[in-house]
């Protein structure tokens, strides 16, 4: 999915979401995009457009980094156990 289309959809929905719900809406929207296999690089390209999206994207990127670190630790543990 192209960045322009992602932003256009967010702009449409953002107009109808109360300010108190925008953080939750942004989190759900970004989670939806991740579930549809939108590349991390596309999400990173959206940074700076909207503070709610920025926060939601940061959470996803942080989670992915944490998952990557966990996998790296698991790989290191498996090599140690081979001896």
Low-confidence stretches: none
Q: Rg to the nearest angstrom?
A: 16 Å
Mean pLDDT: 87
Shape assignment: elongated
**Through-space gap between termini:** 46 Å
Total strands: the figure is: 0
- Helix % is over 70%
Instruction: Report the biggest beta sheet as strand number plus sense, adding barrel if it closes.
Output: none
Q: Spell out the helices and strands N to C.
A: HHHH
Q: Number of DSSP helices?
A: 4
Q: Which structural class matches the secondary elements?
A: mainly alpha
Tell me the number of structural domains: 1
Percentage of residues in DSSP E strands? under 5%
Describe the structure.
It is a single chain. With 83 residues, the chain is mainly alpha-helical. The protein has helices at residues 3-14, 22-35, 40-45, 51-81. The chain starts with a helix and ends with a helix. The protein has one domain. It is built from four helices and no strands. α2 (22-35) packs across α4 (51-81). The longest helix is centred in the C-terminal third of the chain and has 31 residues, at 51-81. The chain is 76% helix and 0% strand.
